[in-house]
Amino acid sequence: MIGLLRASSRIGGIRGFSSKGGLRLEGVEDIIVVASGKGGVGKSTTAVNLAVALAKRCQLKVGLLDADIYGPSVPTMMKIHDKPEVTEDKKMVPIEMYGVKCISMGFLVEKDAPIVWRGPMVMNALEKLTRGVDWGSLDVLVVDMPPGTGDAQISMTQRLQLSGALIVSTPQDVALIDARRGARMFSKVEVPVSS
Amino acid sequence: MENGEVPENANDNCPGTRSETAGKAESCQGCPNQEACATAPKGPDPDLVAIAERMATVKHKILVLSGKGGVGKSTFSAQLSFALASMDFQVGLLDIDICGPSIPKMLGLEGQDIHQSNLGWSPVYVESNLGVMSIGFMLTNPDDAVIWRGPRKNGLIKQFLKDVYWGELDFLVVDAPPGTSDEHISIAQCLQVCGIDGAIIITTPQQVSLIDVRKEVSFCKKLGLPVLGVVENMSGLCQRIADLKFVKMTETGEERDMTQWAMEYLKEKAPELLGLVASTEVFDSSSGGALRMCQEMGVPFLGKVPLDPQLCKAAEEGRSCFEDQKCGISAPALKRIIDKLLENPGLSTLAIDNGA
């Protein structure tokens, strides 16, 4: 009984999330995350097309970070099969394609190898994929998030100053319910939301 | 696999709370948990013992997994549960998707609460032989986001397994979130003590989906979890011609609705067309789809389910597709898959006993 009460009183609680205190990424002007509570709604498709459009049509310097550690789709969508190089100060060099600098977990592992990691290792990996990369000077960094409101989302909002979140959904109720949760999460940490 | 959980405030390179070097390794210096780890008893997790006791009354446990999101895991789990319940089995459906629980919606149980009894938490019953448990029942507001890190999710999953009074079950179907993360590792670790019959993996025919699903198959092999089969969902869009809408694209890119004109034209000129079902591929499966992937990875292929708008509607309204006359396309496909699943040696003796 006590366990149940404790669980239900904490659900939805924030516990000190803040993006205002989040750190800026050197050389990067703005960071936009493309998120959704639900999987399979087209986040990666939207993120990739948004990044390429900003680069080609708006002539901006754009980076694309694939934060989906478990199911990275960016290598397939951007047709990148190489491994990134490493600079002298041990930073990864993002691979450029269609005018966008990309980095993804998919570049670093074999195609069929599963990433069977718990939360803390995911946090470390995301830290390396953001601060351990030589982005150079960027106008916009588009981040393709995994589905849900778990470790990856919490890490991103705590460690980075986000300019905004774009929420993607499909028309079904089950997708909208989860998308609303995703939007609420970003509102709680005061990241402007667009959908 | 890791040696116990790594707490949130632990140092980098934490060896794990249950490791032999916990509290004594170099990386433990200065960690707030150092003393606790050094003095804590190491050995089997007592929660696992409690879970094994609860699960002793459950005959078969099936996980529904996918590397990719949005492929239809929850839809399949719900319809599988309905089908098994209609065959007079005692069924439990456990939703371990903590961040995006879809099961309450899909079984028409939104707004229901979990009750306590002296035997433990009571699942919410759709029918007398189909009980459901999900975090969705514990949220005060359905829009509330569950923003939890791994260790908290693991705690709740353990509670679902050891504190819920499932009673005597023939099947426990577990609907997992996408990926290969905390929830999956936890459920596999917790249930492996008492034996899991296997996992059903859901995918769509797209390349991006198959890539992630291959990882999931590798995950199962890594953990020694048998793959009962792979289901290819959203295999092709099937819609009755009579239900279609017709639009004309103008030069300015606008859409003009021509449905009424088209229907009258068809009724007059080709009425027999109205009784047909139009089928088209939505996701490109020229690479061979899930069947080819199964052949390459050596896992059984259970079948294809078409993308049927009526099935989506039934799922969103919490109904079984097998009792819906309108799901004439998807229901037989699902039935064939479930029958094939029950032919599995580990599950089939049960079906014979029940005269199914």
From TrEMBL, chain A:
PROSITE patterns: MRP. The keyword Lyase does not apply. Keywords: ATP-binding, Iron, Iron-sulfur, Metal-binding, Nucleotide-binding. InterPro entries: Mrp-like_CS (IPR000808), Mrp/NBP35_ATP-bd (IPR019591), NUBPL-like (IPR044304), P-loop_NTPase (IPR027417), YlxH/NBP35 (IPR033756). SUPFAM superfamilies: P-loop containing nucleoside triphosphate hydrolases. GO terms for cellular component: mitochondrion. Gene3D superfamilies: P-loop containing nucleotide triphosphate hydrolases (3.40.50.300). GO terms for molecular function: 4 iron, 4 sulfur cluster binding; ATP binding; ATP-dependent FeS chaperone activity; metal ion binding. GO terms for biological process: iron-sulfur cluster assembly; mitochondrial respiratory chain complex I assembly. PANTHER family: IRON-SULFUR PROTEIN NUBPL. Belongs to the Mrp/NBP35 ATP-binding proteins family. This is Iron-sulfur protein NUBPL.
TrEMBL record, chain B:
Its cofactor is [4Fe-4S] cluster. PROSITE patterns: MRP. GO terms for molecular function: 4 iron, 4 sulfur cluster binding; ATP binding; ATP-dependent FeS chaperone activity; metal ion binding. GO terms for biological process: iron-sulfur cluster assembly. ATP binds at G67, K68, G69, G70, V71, G72, K73, S74. Homodimer and homotetramer. Predominantly homodimeric. Binds 3 [4Fe-4S] clusters per homodimer. Contains two stable clusters in the N-termini and one labile, bridging cluster between subunits of the homodimer. Component of the cytosolic iron-sulfur (Fe-S) protein assembly (CIA) machinery. Required for maturation of extramitochondrial Fe-S proteins. Functions as Fe-S scaffold, mediating the de novo assembly of an Fe-S cluster and its transfer to target apoproteins. Essential for embryo development. Pfam families: ParA. InterPro entries: Mrp-like_CS, Mrp/NBP35_ATP-bd, NUBP1/Nbp35, P-loop_NTPase, YlxH/NBP35. Residues 10-20 have a biased composition (Polar residues). It is found in: Cytoplasm. Although plant and algal NBP35 proteins lack the characteristic CXXC motif in the C-terminus, thought to be required for Fe-S cluster binding, they can bind a [4Fe-4S] cluster in the C-terminus. Also, in this linage, no CFD1 partner protein homolog as found in other eukaryotes can be found. Its main location: cytoplasm. Residues 1-27 are annotated as: Disordered. This is Cytosolic Fe-S cluster assembly factor NBP35. GO terms for cellular component: cytosol. Belongs to the Mrp/NBP35 ATP-binding proteins family. NUBP1/NBP35 subfamily. Keywords: 4Fe-4S, ATP-binding, Cytoplasm, Iron, Iron-sulfur, Metal-binding, Nucleotide-binding. The keyword 4Fe-4S applies. [4Fe-4S] cluster binds at C14, C28, C31, C37. PANTHER family: CYTOSOLIC FE-S CLUSTER ASSEMBLY FACTOR NUBP2 (PTHR23264:SF19), NUCLEOTIDE-BINDING PROTEIN NBP35 YEAST -RELATED (PTHR23264).
